[in-house]
User: Fold this.
Amino acid sequence: MKRMLPLFLSAALLAAASEDKVDLTKPPSTPPLAPFKLPPTTEAVLPNGLKLVMVRDTRFPILTARLVFSAGSKYDPAPMRGLAEMAGSLLKEGTSSRSSKMIAEQLASVGGTLGIDVGPDNLTLSFSGLSDHSGTMFEIISDVVRNASFPQDEVDLYKKNRKQELLAARSESSTLVNERFHQAVFGANPYAVVLPTAESIAHIGWSELLRFRQRFVAPDNAWLVVVSPLAPADLTAALSKSFAGWMNKTAVGKPLPAPPAPKRKIILVDRPGSVQADIMVGRLAVRRQDADFFPLLVANATLGVGSSSRMFRIIREKQSYAYDAHSTFIPMKESAYVAAATQVRNEVVEPALKNVLELMAQMSTNPPDAAEQETTKNLLSGIYAIRLETPDGIAGQLAMAKSMDLPNDYMEKYTSRIRAVNSARMRTAAAKYLDPVNSAIVVVGDQSKIGMALSKFGEVQVEKP
Assistant:
């Protein structure tokens, strides 16, 4: 046996040598992803106006759902910024018949979970549990949205904790640059508000929370997306029973003021003692319905998403100016923005910012070649495909599509629309939305250390934190 082993290895090595050599300097080619096919889907509307989307997925004995209300922070009255997020956080802290402990225990008894998220556009309840106990889950969720009582002790505790959280958040330069960037881009539009203030939180009381729930947490102001193995007819019957008596309110938000036209402005938030500077450069962009959405999505990813992006390769890897250099494209229901961001030490603020502006401009003057496009499209397509592997991912994307008024085939055509983007369309979108000439530049750092460097890019408006 000891003699046979070397002979065996020698034969294997000879066989391997006869095969074509693998070029380890090149990544393996990625075969085209199969297009996503949505499982059987049924839509319905309950008598009270609640819009249903039911997806039958028999892979797991789990029910996963999103209940999405058009009740985001953009509807907060100016003196009470933070009202939507406070109402959302306190919805599950007690009803007229259940304490917060009872809600948690009853959900746990059926393997259920409940999370609540509030963004600029929507207030969303995400819940899941064993599909055999869907009736119990629907009963609890119905009680939460119809009868949340906002106990005074929970309101007081939330306000106390939130004020401390806001203090901690605004001690971070990353928070400051994000806030001032939104203000520069959106102006008087409510999308400009990233966080409430301690003063606005103090103005919110029990009566304001109750009015918010009564006005916005209403069936005709919502989509309910359910992914489960249950038949649509059985689901509809269970939902009709659980949500019977929940009356519509026809909530109507006020029209939002238009954001200001994009233009070059340089804002320095003076933060004495900072040893690094946080930089954001960007402007208004396009919504998902716009023809430029997918070209800009690919252009933005080429610029600054992932380790193959230009910002990562140039600003981080080649120049070693920063650990993080990236770009973001955030579409909302009524507007959007695109931004490049990085954090650099004070000594390299000038060359780093110059690099950021050049890389943004080059997206239209030096668009990606076929290989760079393929890498970016593979990244975006792969991320989306992975996102849709689970019932939770399907529920989340469907809820987003419905709340954004997107067509039913949006998810199924997503990757093909990415693949269809060509250099000409990408160049056109980049010239419109990644043009640094009409972009806001917001920097948080020590004015005494970086003020002169920033002044080389134009007139600087200095603000306090």
Notes: The chain has a mean pLDDT of 93. The radius of gyration is 26 Å. The longest strand covers residues 336-345.
